[in-house]
Structures are given as C-alpha cells and as structure tokens.
Write a structure and sequence with these properties.
mainly beta; eight-stranded mixed β-sheet; 2 domains; Jelly Rolls; seven-stranded mixed β-sheet; 44% strand; 593 residues; Tachylectin-2, Chain A
Length: 593
C-alpha cells in the first residue's frame, strides 16, 4: 500500500455471517452518522482517517491503513484497522489488528498483505516505519489461529525479516504483496523500491516465510519512474470471467490460457496503471508484449489506467467462494483538510469490483460485485419517453438521487454528425473533457447522466459520452464533469476523461452504469472497460433532495434503449460490532438505519 493511502487486505474466515435487515421494505435514505457527505454503502470507518483484501473460509476481512487518533494522515499514528463481512456490503468493526508498538514499526504500520499458509494459518507481511524512520518489512501472526475473527495479532521480536538493502532508499521500500508459491516450492512476494536510483518492483523468495533472499533481477523496473508503489501481480484467464488464484499453475506462466497483470500506483500522479503481460517464475520477471512496449514504453504513466478518475492504491484478492478476482481501492477526499477535521473522518474504499480480461486480451473489465443488488429497493422510471431530443433533459423519477445504482444504454442512429478530432488530443482525455464539457453542444454527444443535481441545476455532476471522427474511424470519449458539482469553495472540481475501447461503428450503442452514494460517484462505461471515480460535495443536500437526469446536448436525438435505476438501502458499515466481537460462533449483523 502507499504511504499516503491504501486498502490493505481483504480476507475471508470460517464463520457463518448472516445479515438481518429491518422489516421496513423501503428503509430511509440518509447518510450514515448524519453528515451529508457520509456514504451509505461504501466502506469507511466510523471516524478518522483511512485508506487490502483476502478471502478465507467464507468470511471477508478488510485490513486497512488507519489513523485512530484523527482525521488526517499522520505517519507516527498509522495502524491497521480491521473489519469483517459476510457479503462485501455490510461490515462490522473489530479492534485494530496492528498498532505501532515496537522499534521496527515505532513510526507507523504502513501497508502490506495477508497470505494463507498451507496449514491454513494466515500471516501478515507489512512495511513498518522503524525508530530511525526507515521502511522495513515485518511479519505478524494471529495470537489464536483458532479464533475465527482473528481479533489479536502478535509481532515476533525477530522482526524485521527484511531490513533495508544497501542499494535501496530507506524511505522508498514498501508495500509487500500477497505471497505466492512458485513451481519450485519457494514463496515469493513483490515489493516497491527505489534501487540504485531506479523505480523498481523487486521480488523476494523464501522456503519458510521468515528468511528471504532478493532475486537478482527486478520483476519490472522503469528508469522513467522514480517510485512506483502499491504493486499487485495477479493471473487472469484469457477467456471467461472466472478469477484465478495465486497458485503455481496460474501464476507460474506455464499454464495455457493464462495471462498476468502487473499494476502499480504512481505517487506523482496519484493514479493506478497496469499492463497485461507474462510472468515467468523461473526468473521472476514480468514481460510486456512487444506491441504494447512499442506503444507505451517503460514509463508506467503511459500504461493503461485502472480508473480515469479519483482513485488510488488499488489491490485485488481472489474470492475462492465465488471464483472471482475482486478489486478495492482507496478514494480520498477532494475538499479541504479543514473540512475533514470538521467532519471527523477522511477517505473511503471504492465499492468492490469483479475484474476479468476482456475478449481482446489487453485490458481489464471491472464491474460492481453482484452483492450490491441486495441493497436494491425502489425502482426508478424515465419520465417523458425513451427518446431524448437535442438539448433535451429527462428526469429519472421515483427514487432518491443521492443513493442509487443506474444503468443506461444509448443507441446512436447515425455517426454522420460526429465531430472531427485532431489525433494530438488523444494524448490528454482529461483536457479534452475540460474543453468539451457537458454544456458544450456537439455532433454526437454529449449525452449521459446528470447526478447529484439540485432542483435548479445550479449544482450537478455530469457523466457522459462524445463520439469523435478520426482519420481511420471513430472513438468514444467518456467524461465526468465536476466543474458545477458544488458551489462550495475550496473543493477540487476537475474534469476526468478516458477513451472507451469499443467498436461504436459496429455496435451503434454504448452503456453507462453509475453508482451514486452521496459524496462518491463511480461510473463504468462500455460494460466496465472504462471506469471513472469522482468525489462530489454539493451544498443543496443540506436543505433539499438530489435529482437524477438523462441529458442530451448533441445535434440529434438519442434513444435510451435500456434504463435500470434503483434506489439503494443503507448498509451497516462499521456502525458497531453487532455481536461479532463478543461472540465467536455464527453471528448476525443487524442493519443500522
């Protein structure tokens, strides 16, 4: 995990975790803990600052970087928070798993991962900031491995298991990944470092998880990147949506039908980047395909984006119960630190996403996990018909606009009116969206959704598409325009942009799914090929309700061929232990309204 933010680890445990909902068929829609910006179904602690994942015998555990003493990031106060869930939606808080109590982590327990050993015992590998403020690698074990909730952890006195190497910067050596067993029977994990001045992802090997040796070659390195943190290496199937575990047959590179993904987080851009390639566990190296190397080079910042918006330090885990790979990420605030102190909390997790490889084999598809459907209550309707004329606006009625799941598909009758695009603009979709906002009329587009909108539309967040003509065909631009998301001063309100890799000339249609949860808006374009996360802080929610609209500022009408809009209930997220802490057997987490 990044020092400035990261989900640490989700992992599942052998406890039956049932969920008891209120008898009301339509629970009230209001932000948890009363604050208007507080989310209702995204993970965040009850208070203070936070910013990975594992599945173990049927229960999910989320360990996350946490400051238990305040709403701001503070190196000396970094702990590991710990919450558990049976469905990735409702969460119960446990006591901190790790606190900075030893010389090897005196200045903070930074990021790391959980690995399940062959005997079923979980082990934590984490970066500690020691008494001399050096980043060292430590292990921790459950105090009672039979405790299904893993409430207490012990840190052996022989830590650190990996001190800072002589050629590595002492403040740039962090974020160990989940470990995997290679075909030679040795454990491996990857870790971020600056070695001899070069940003690299290193690999360490061990026979016993205690004595580690560094591989001579890095997993991957980039002289164009001073530091790339929060690495994640995982296998993906070349065909189908099932996830793969980090075992030798999948991760080793020899298995047919398997590719590999290397993801890194860049602190200079606060963005996550990835490439689909091949991992070879004989020499522990990751190879980028020649065609992608030629197109993108070794600079991670030219690789594909996990998300084109406000999201960082993503981490995946394999959910064995549902045979899927799930991604989490940290989403920090974009208002001021003073606002965070006033609220008493800062940061949250994106809603968990299933991840798989698309048919083309070069990019990931991301989609909200199916458990979100358990929160669906009222269904919305599009008022005024399915065809939206040029300059038209159609409200989605019948649901609360501040807590919703909306999926819409648009049909395009003709591409003849598409505006031409200079190829130079392909390099910076953010700037292109900034120049061509939702209010700027175009040929084909903008069309999409207005979310978290006030009744007078003075505040609104627009998520939309534009189709452009290129010399060799067409391209689809997806934007999230935050410039009018709030009238509040001191809020970061950019335009996010990304191109959607679909064949619009063949399909003549494009889909958009958007999750709205008070101060976070997550959007998935083209069936999840392009994802975009945004933070919004509208003022109108203090005194009124938010509205949802379909809009079209193109030159011609656009048809809405599909609309599914749902109001979502409030999940129980760290509102209390709900009996989990005091009782180690089968438990129920009652939903708090």
């Amino acid at each position: 995990m990044a020092l400035a933010g990261l989900p640490l680890s989700v992992f599942a445990i052998a406890v039956h975790f049932c969920l008891v909902f209120s008898s009301s068929s339509s629970p009230p829609v209001c932000p948890a803990n009363g604050h208007r910006d507080r989310t209702a179904y995204h993970f965040q602690p009850a208070k203070n600052w936070q910013n990975g994942p594992v599945y173990y015998n049927g229960m999910y555990h989320l360990f996350y970087q946490y400051n238990p003493h305040g709403a701001l990031w503070d190196v000396g106060n970094l702990s590991w928070g710990h919450s558990v869930s049976g469905d990735l939606v409702n969460w119960a808080a446990l006591d901190n798993a790790l606190d900075p109590t030893a010389p090897f982590d005196a200045n903070g327990c930074a990021s790391g991962s959980v690995t399940i050993l062959p005997d079923g015992v979980p082990v934590v590998m984490y970066s500690g900031i020691d008494a001399r403020r050096r980043q060292v690698q430590n292990v921790a074990f459950p105090k009672n491995p039979r405790d299904p909730l893993l409430r207490e952890w012990t840190k052996p006195g022989y830590n650190p298991v990996i001190p800072v190497p002589a050629d590595v910067s002492p403040d740039n050596f962090r974020d160990p990944t989940t470990a995997w067993l290679g075909s030679d029977g040795l454990w491996r994990f990857a870790i971020s470092a600056v070695a001899d001045g070069v940003g690299a992802t290193l690999v360490y090997r061990s026979a016993d998880f205690l004595r580690w040796e560094r591989n001579a070659a890095p997993l991957h390195a980039s002289r164009d990147a001073v530091m790339a943190e929060c690495p994640d290496l995982f296998p993906v199937a070349e065909h189908g949506e099932d996830g793969l575990d980090l075992d030798a047959s999948a991760i080793g590179g020899a298995g047919a039908g398997v590719r590999h993904v290397l993801k890194v987080s860049m602190p200079d851009t606060l963005e996550d980047y990835y490439m689909v390639g091949r991992y070879d566990d004989a020499d522990d190296t990751f190879t980028v395909p020649p065609e992608d190397l030629e197109a993108h080079g070794d600079d991670y910042r030219r690789w594909r984006r996990i998300d084109h918006g406000h999201l960082y330090a993503s981490k995946t885990f394999y959910d064995a119960g549902k045979k899927r790979r799930v991604l989490w990420a940290w989403v920090n605030e974009s208002d001021s630190e003073a606002d965070d102190v006033t609220k008493g909390w800062s940061g949250l997790q994106s809603f968990p996403r299933a991840v798989w490889l698309d048919e083309g084999g070069r990019q990931l598809v991301q989609w909200p996990v199916e458990e979100i459907e358990t929160l669906r209550r009222k269904r919305g309707v599009l008022l005024g018909g399915n065809e939206v004329e040029a300059g038209g606006l159609r409200e989605i009625g019948g649901i609360a606009g501040s807590q919703a799941d909306v999926e819409v598909a648009f049909e395009i009758a003709s591409l003849a009116g598409a505006d031409r695009l200079d190829p130079d603009h392909l390099r910076d979709p953010d700037a292109l969206c900034g120049e061509n906002g939702a209010a700027v009329h175009g040929g084909i587009g903008p069309f999409g959704l207005l979310v978290m909108a006030s009744g007078d539309l003075r505040e609104r967040t627009a998520v939309f598409f534009r189709v452009f003509r290129l010399s060799h065909g067409y391209t689809v631009l997806m934007c999230t325009d935050l410039t009018r998301s709030t009238s509040r001063a001191g809020v970061y309100k950019p335009s996010h942009g990304g191109f959607v890799d679909i064949d619009i000339e063949k399909d003549r249609a494009i889909s958009l799914r958007t999750l709205i949860d008070h101060s976070i808006v997550e959007s998935f374009g083209g069936g999840g090929r392009t994802c975009m996360t945004a933070r919004v802080y509208p003022e109108h929610v203090a005194t009124g309700s938010s509205h949802l609209y379909v809009f079209n500022n193109a030159s011609d009408a656009v048809k809405v061929s599909k609309l599914e809009a749902w109001e979502l209930a409030t999940a129980s997220v760290n509102a209390g232990d709900d009996g989990l802490i005091s009782y180690g057997g089968p438990v129920c987490a009652a939903q708090v309204q």
